[in-house]
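Sequence in, structure out. Go.
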Amino acid sequence: MAAAAAAAVGGPQPPQPELPAPGLALDKAATAAHLKAALSRPDNRAGAEELQALLERVLSAERPLAAAADGEEAAAAGGGGGPGAAEEEALEWCKCLLAGGGGYDEFCAAVRAYDPAALCGLVWTANFVAYRCRTCGISPCMSLCAECFHQGDHTGHDFNMFRSQAGGACDCGDSNVMRESGFCKRHQIKSSSNIPCVPKDLLMMSEFVLPRFIFCLIQYLREGYNEPAADVPSEKDLNKVLQLLEPQISFLEDLTKMGGAMRSVLTQVLTNQQNYKDLTSGHGENACAKKSHEKYLIALKSSGLTYPEDKLVYGIQEPSAGTSTLAVQGFAGATGTLGQLDSSDEEDQDGSQGLGKRKRVKLSSSTKDQSIMDVLKHKSFLEELLFWTIKYEFPQKMVTFLLNMLPDQEYKVAFTKTFVQHYAFIMKTLKKSHESDTMSNRIVHISVQLFSNEELARQVTEECQLLDIMVTVLLYMMESCLIKSELQDEENSLHVVVNCGEALLKNNTYWPLVSDFINILSHQSVAKRFLEDHGLLVTWMNFVSFFQGMNLNKRELNEHVEFESQTYYAAFAAELEACAQPMWGLLSHCKVRETQEYTRNVVRYCLEALQDWFDAINFVDEPAPNQVTFHLPLHRYYAMFLSKAVKCQELDLDSVLPDQEMLMKLMIHPLQIQASLAEIHSNMWVRNGLQIKGQAMTYVQSHFCNSMIDPDIYLLQVCASRLDPDYFISSVFERFKVVDLLTMASQHQNTVLDAEHERSMLEGALTFLVILLSLRLHLGMSDDEILRAEMVAQLCMNDRTHSSLLDLIPENPNPKSGIIPGSYSFESVLSAVADFKAPVFEPGGSMQQGMYTPKAEVWDQEFDPVMVILRTVYRRDVQSAMDRYTAFLKQSGKFPGNPWPPYKKRTPLHPSYKGLMRLLHCKTLHIVLFTLLYKILMDHQNLSEHVLCMVLYLIELGLENSAEEESDEEASVCGPERCHDSWFPGSNLVSNMRHFINYVRVRVPETAPEVKRDSPASTSSDSLSSLHNSGTAQVFSLVAERRKKFQEIINRSSSEANQVVRPKTSNKWSAPGSAPQLTTAILEIKESILSLLIKLHHKLSGKQNSYYPPWLDDIEVLIQPEIPKYNHGDGITAVERILLKAALQSRMNKRIIEEICRKVTPPVPPKKITAAEKKTLDKEERRQKARERQQKLLAEFASRQKSFMETAMDVDSPENDIPMEIATAEPQVSEAVYDCVICGQSGPSSEDRPTGLVVLLQASSVLGQCRDNIEPKKLPITEEEQIYPWDTCAAVHDVRLSLLQRYFKDSSCLLAVSIGWEGGVYVQTCGHTLHIDCHKSYMESLRNDQVLQGFSVDKGEFTCPLCRQFANSVLPCYPGSNVESNLWQRPSNRSIQDLIKEVEELQGRPGAFPSETNLSKEMESVMKDIKNTTQKKYRDYSKTPGSPDNDFLFMYSVARTNLELELIHRGGNLCSGGASTAGKRSCLNQLFHVLALHMRLYSIDSEYNPWRKLTQLVEEMNSQQGNEEQQPEVPVLYHDVTSLLLIQILMIPQPLRKDHFTCIVKVLFTLLYTQALVALSVKCSEEDRSAWKHTGALKKNACDAEKSYEVLLSFVISELSKGKLYHEEGTQECAMVSPIAWSPESMEKYLQDFCLPFLRITSLLQHHLFGEDLPSCQEEEEFSVLSSCLGLLPTFYQTEHPFVSASCLDWPVPAFDIISQWCFEINSFTERHAEQGKALLIQESRWKLPHLLQLPENYNTIFQYYHRKTCSVCTKVPKDPAVCLVCGTFVCLKGLCCKQQSYCECVLHSQNCGAGTGIFLLINASVIIIIRGHRFCLWGSVYLDAHGEEDRDLRRGKPLYICKERYKVLEQQWISHTFDHINKRWGPHYNGL
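Output:
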């Protein structure tokens, strides 16, 4: 056969169109074996040719299919049974050939055996759950698959779990990326040594077959690709091709998973250049191959050569179409010429000079860049495969295949080089792509695997010019979206910036490239190359300058902008990602002295770029008004490298600073930003919309601040320390537009600012100066000090969670810098400054997280308002910090009033920046401070406390930082400085403080009050010449001052100053004509700063002569300056502190202060009350009156609400609440009075106008969840653990009912049990009442209310108008007294027999429904509501649907459900007593009336009334057995006694008398006791029974035989022995029998426990019906206390010591007769069904309280089991898995797969499991979701991390641990049914969960 096959294949002639002989297809294995043998011979040429021919035919058999997909040549496919078949066939052939005739699976296993698995390399796609351990990672991108993570040891490490965004690969075993200690068990062994060598023949076939296979794949890709038409996206076609190729690529992927041996074969195949040449060149006579080669060339041409106007580089002639010479100059050749890029850069600049067009095509036409951008030549399969992968926009399967190969080292290098070679092409494809997001993720998925490895990155950088390529590609990318900058000089600007509105920036399309760049810069070796390469730095600065000045804002002055652009997001993101992060990356390598050179390089090119920028925008000295850009990346690069140079590299600052003129230019734009911030906060930019506020906030926000505002302020600090201080200060006030305000005159004109903005702008200017002078972030603080200051500032604003603190503290934003948020220093600083507040619950149920709050000593010593102001995004946070500070001072008793921000000592300045302090000692500032103090003292308008605070702060800063000593002061008096102005003698603040200023000349409007005064005679006009005359008036103009200084500086620095400075005679500073004329007036001042301060002290304290120098009393003050009493306080304290410091600094000051204080201070002129102020006073008065009126009303309302307030706390804590008696409980018979909370009227409830209680009806299955074992159920976390519901209360009751219905008459069964264990209706109220008609109109108004409510009015839902508790119905109150009157309660002395008769008669009366009154209508409607609350299946248990018995059963079960639930709320017993401890404010009384009214409509046939059977003996017992065919009634002993109780009571007409109630209870107790005895007898063994039968019989004739349990038990046993009940006991029964020996004590306990549930329910019922309190007691005496409370125990009985339960019996008829009658019924049943008869007798009465499932300690155990678990319904892994915490069912949240009749699975389950209430844990989010009916809410999480925080959606991925307290709260809310009241955020789920 093999020979025949070979013959058929024969020779290399072109293949025939017909298919090979059928036999060949059948016996693939034989052919394969034959070929393998042939190839194994030493001379294997023939075999090789034979194989080639076979492959050619097999693989080309599938080739027409691609064509078929394109819709051509379908005919050529010839046979093959449809497309799928032929491809399958080809794959089958390949598998057979690879295996060489053996089985493919065995072959796979054999290859795997040779896998030296040192690396994991598992590749995953988006949404995969992986881990990252920072402790083990070397590269920050390190990630591990879950399996490797759990198999390694990471205890105590800083790790987190994350959902992969873009996909990734496991790094386990790769020591380049992570430390070996973190490897998992599988990858720890260096296994290469012990892996045997791969036998040659194993993979021989693969080496022959795979090249053809891959080539075939490439041909497919070539043919499938059609260049998309101009606009039509062709994704559809591409996807079609990819779908067809799915099996082939999967096959390759499977090969890679076979391990190292197979991977190395694949690597050989993919990188072998000879193979590629032979197969793909397109020579030869094969037409198909030719055609495919042409397609390849077209594709190359259409994508490779982007710029058609370029002739091909390197002078290669234009190739004629179709030939293969399009293999353009190889990449290697191109890289050779890629030298320094300097020359091209000069061209660049020339090119850009003449650029006037809006867009430019490209900047550089240099051939070098072109080669990077345009040349691609493929030399191997790998290269072409990558080309097509890019062309097809990175199909996931291809990406996975290429990445799966990475563990092979040789492949890794080859692939990385190929990737770099295609980098430019990737960028072009990305830009064109429609799916750029997906594509970006896939690119990064690949590149992060390649570039995170330092060794590899270095190699590629050296061999492939990686840096050049990246920078060039980034530059090209941005060039496509440049526009002309409009900053400064719009017409002539030559600067171009990126246009933030373009998709490239808006969609962040550039991020893959930038992220790769940041990634490679994190490697030191690569970053060094970058910093050494001048050409690259120039290009990079060129790139950064594209962002300089982008997104320019122009202030709207007239009307509001129509369209608020949101481009600022793009702008901030671009600066952060494209400029700042690479900058931080570079900075992280400039940490030591040796790197000085790098810094010099960067600074040099940065300054050049800045100079070019200033030239390009034509900047001279004034910024254009009303425009601001927040983006100055060049300034910031410069600033950050300067800071690094001084801080880490010990560079001399002056050696890297430019000249004064450049510094003046540098400071302008950052200063403009600071002024604009103040303008924005003063609402001067409101017409620009909200987005401008957004920009101001983003600029200071924690992720941006250290790349934006911090460098800006630092740069300003550097400029200030080197420029003339007077010039700097006057520039600041000019920029902030408050120059005109700084005048002594009481009125002035501001030509550039509206009056309403003046104050906040002045505050802004002063605050800025304070920040500038006191911030030390870059001026000498160490990293730890910075961290501490940042942390304190954030904690002072608000308590913070650990994660928000991590987020708010600006870390070094470059993620690769190694400063890790969770690092040691962070935690240690945190524990030093803050206390942890554990998570608590507020009573309202809102969940608190674990918070950190500042320690007391931090408030005391470290609270720094300056830092807080700098870091607040919202202004309210500053206020919040001050409020917290105030609270601290009050609490600690340090200061009672409203404190001022404290003054904080600063870190010492680094010597390089000492010049900064000259600002504090310059006359300009002193004049400003003097003027402001004077204005504040004189009460001029527009000055605030904040201004004063800042003024004092600046004075204090000056005193703290004064360098010169006293002696110098005296000497410097006659220095040359004195020439041009005589306000102050020198520039030292200490001496200037005492200098008196006598007269000042001011310019004021003619209307100002100052004009009227006579000016002092001594003044000469403008007599600045008579300088030293102290009577001369001082004139001062800041603007002139600044001009003068500027002129001086310019003159010094450049000779051609006359061209530079434009004369500034613009009308900006002269008043517009319409304003009143300014005239000059002269004011007499005669004050110094010191005297002003002392007067201020008097003014602030409101007392004359309040200041008394402290050193006069206590000379110590001057010796020890740090006095704690001055640390905290208000303005008075601040003034005292300053005066003390001034006195300390100079003896003269001390003397002058004493002098001033001696003169009696003239009183401060009384304030004239202006009209405006009068208006405000009137307003105040009116307000006061209104307030008083309101108080009165409120008081009235409060008394009304008092009762409400007493109970209001109840919603919040279901635990301790105060019962609310709905009406008064006075003993006299009075009608109950109700308050309507809507109309506010009080009155009784009447038939016509009934009042009702606000109630919430809800179906509940909580009771059904009680279990009978103490072991709590755990949530299953392995396949073995399953939860079966057969032991729940609901299941047991269901079984019992269906058992009864099998053997007994249906109507009788329905009276023998209660339902409502599942789906029972629970009624609860908030205790407020309203008229039912008021309620109806309230509902109407809600219906018309358009506001979105959290509830559905159509379903009758509303919130209580008073307490806003959720409700859905109103329960009418029965007219008459609420608590039954005493007259009924007096114990009657009638015999029990009489009472029994009365009860029977009362029940016999037919209950006619009362006449149609409003009340009865309401009763009917509420009954309808109650029925509709639960689903039909929980109401209908009868075999005949719709029978009245059903309703009857349902109604008394509602009463039962409510009583049982109240019992559970009380903890399952009544030991705590009290009126109503845990029961909600109860509405049981009203509920009973409604139920009774309806039950009386159904009269029980007197024949069947169980009352008869309990109280009368039936004459002849045999009469019942006559009618065999009819099912018997349920025997009395099978009846549920509590149900009987409710039936009896509800059947008696209300109001019920107490003695009747007691009578019913006594009768039922006899039955209950008998049931207990029967159950006991069944439980014990045969021997025990006979023993008891004997002992009891002996005592039968004693006098109290009827009250002795032994006698009764013996009688029961003897009666039941007559039947077959005990006979069945074979061996299998013995297992059930409890092995314990019964002692009298244990029997007594059994009997008591059996009866207790009944007694509890009965006592509760009595408490609600008759309003008696429940006594409290110990657990062991609960039985006796309850039975005496119910009147079962005769009162005299209390004395007897050992209490026996039987003493409570009170038999209505002789005990033995009635017992024997009851036993007879049982015997007659057990005749036939002994088994069932026994089962029905043993009732489990002791149910444990319901609990939710127990959850494991660590969340990870839940997550790992459930997040990959398949759903049992649809067998898929759900996207959102959830698990029910009540029963442990696993469900798909929102899964359409499991939807049934439009209900999604969670909603469906909530109905089946909780009758509409579901509690689900969402596995992927760790949160709990509550479904309640048609609404749902997110409840929160019960799993918290180590810092007490939730981690919703597992975003942080830290380990989570159960918080037991929270889980308890959840369980408590479930049991007490208070989800609706406590959780506030509900929404409709539309059945979609």
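Check: The first helix runs from residue 2 to 9. The two ends are 63 Å apart (CA to CA).
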